[in-house]
Amino acid sequence: MQEVARQAARDYIEGASKRQLLDRALDDELLHYAAALERLGQ
Questions:
Q1: Helices vs. strands in the chain: H and E counts, helices first
Q2: pLDDT score for 27
Q3: What is the pLDDT of residues 1-42, one digit of tens each?
Q4: In Å, how far are 3, 8, 13, 16 from 24, measured between CA atoms?
Q5: Which of 2, 23, 36, 38 is the most exposed, fewest CB within 10 Å of its CB?
């Protein structure tokens, strides 16, 4: 049971870290391309 809990914690931390990296990358790129994305949305 403890190993299952440990693995679940590892999976959560790994997933959260990947999400944070992706969020940061998207934030940077969205700022860079904000004007173009706005024009595409019109």
A1: 2, 0
A2: 86
A3: 888 888 888 888 888 888 888 888 888 888 888 888 889 888
A4: 32, 24, 17, 12
A5: 2
The tokens describing 23, both together, are 């969020």
Q: What is the pTM of this model?
A: 0.49
Contact assessment for residue 18 and residue 10, using Cβ atoms and an 8 Å cutoff: no
Name the amino acid, one letter, at 42. Q
Q: Residues 8-21, buried b or exposed e (16+ Cβ, 10 A)? A: eeeeeeeeeeeeee
For the chain, the farthest-separated pair of C-alpha atoms sits apart, in whole angstroms, at 54
